[in-house]
Design a protein that fits this description.
The chain is of the alpha/beta class and 462 residues long. It has 21 helices and six strands. Strand 2, helix 4 and strand 3 form a beta-alpha-beta unit.
Length: 462
Amino acid sequence: MTIIHDQAMHYIYQQVLERLLSHMSQAQRASLQLLIQRLLVAAGGPEYIGTFRVLVVQGGDHASARLLAMVRAAQLSIALRAPVTFQLRVLVVCLPVASSALLEQHERSFNTLFMQDDPRVQLQMIDAGAVTPFSRRPTAAADSRALARDGLLLFGHLIDSRPEALLGSRLHLEVADSVRLALGGQPRADVLLTAMPVGQRRRYLVWARRSLRLAGGGGSGTLHQCVAGLAERLGRLQHVAVLPQELPDDLDQSPLVDSPLRLMAIDDLLPQLLSEGELDRMMELGMEPAPQAKPLAAFLDTLAFEQLQGLRTRCTALTGSRRTLSLVGQPGLGETQVPQSHIAKAYGLERTQLMCLFHSPFVDHGRGLERFLQCCHPDMLVALPYLHRALQGKACPEAVKHWLTNTSGLSLTQLRTIYDSRVQSSVWRMLESLARRDVHLALLSRRRTADRVVCEACADGA
């Protein structure tokens, strides 16, 4: 029975390869042969290809899907020529949270390439900071979601609540931490395969060195020698960005490994990944058009960014017209006119908590707290002195404490950290640096006081 099953699977894999080749252009087929040669050389020769392990971090853009198709074609081509082929590990990353449409797209791609039942392929995903088997319906633990939610809220309140900063360069730390998690506790991959253009790779490396230097890590010039070492260091910074604390003092120490995880860049072999063709139709790609693809944003859920941006714009309009939002749990304008985004659902955030985040009223000893109450919660103006007492750690009514935690989504300890800005100067410099770069690592304008969502009528003392 095993022999019959193996023969049947061999026939299916052959059909998948033939279908892939029939949908490739002549340039793509030529690049495929060069990719196969490069993989065989990296493995040390055909006799070692069976133990050669390749890691692909899968994003949500066209280029990532095409790259996966080419790597799968290479894997199946080698299997037809030799008794064994390389092991492929695919790590799906979409931050801060993957939409159901994107997960369905990934599943269609995996099914088209017949990867789900192939023992030579391992499909995984990052779900709320944990490595799990790929699934269309991820079920992350509540505490993992809470950690990611706290990181988003703390960064926004302390540093910058603009969506381009919230979902900007800080997410690259999370991607690095995802790679670190994927490498831990499992057989180490030999190469990380990427088609990211050389210019983008250099920009990322410069940003990584700058971030580590600000954190006191020195920005070692050996970062490019081992992807695992780079992911380890940036992953430690990710934990500081989520829960501001003292920076680790051993950032310059790379993990001790027998062999480094090398980066195999094949953008020179696959320039046609930037153009559309028959391969897209075979893969049933329904993602953003290729001309708008941004390599460094491949792991960002664009829907989350658009929804967060739209919510902030709506919040500005509501406060600008002096409309008020309801208190937590009470129906009102905030409940009926502000739709809940899937990022809010995923992290368990209330609309009121996101509105509070955009105002950031607690930082600098509650400098914007009175204005926030005037704009959004006028019924709480009478309790303003008690709110300050609660944030200062002094005695106050329990109802005031509950209102603060419900409205912000943070604990009183976290709120007092924001209120007093009790963050180490080196941590603050690093967080400020993260807020200066968007997800493409392009420089953002410095945030001014006017960048916070304010009610102009309230600011004028109306």
